[in-house]
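Subject: Sanity check before I submit

Could someone independently write out the structure tokens for this chain? I want to compare against mine line by line before I put it in a report. The sequence has 64 residues.
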Amino acid sequence: MAAAHEFVSGYVLPKTDGEREYLIRFERGEFDPSLLFGDGPITRAAIANPEAQWKLQNIRKMQC
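---
Independent answer below. Compare away.
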């Protein structure tokens, strides 16, 4: 059980306020990868990512 707790704490739970805010917004169907990566090519690539867009579309459908 301790190993599972360590894994979740180290790799799954948000570590920063930006990570926490990103997850809260994503759950509401808002996508702002700049909270994780700042402004730059990684953020632009994340915005264009089809998997992320598909997931957001599904989240938004479920909210209606």
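---
OP: Matches mine. For the report I'm noting this point. The chain has five helices and no strands.
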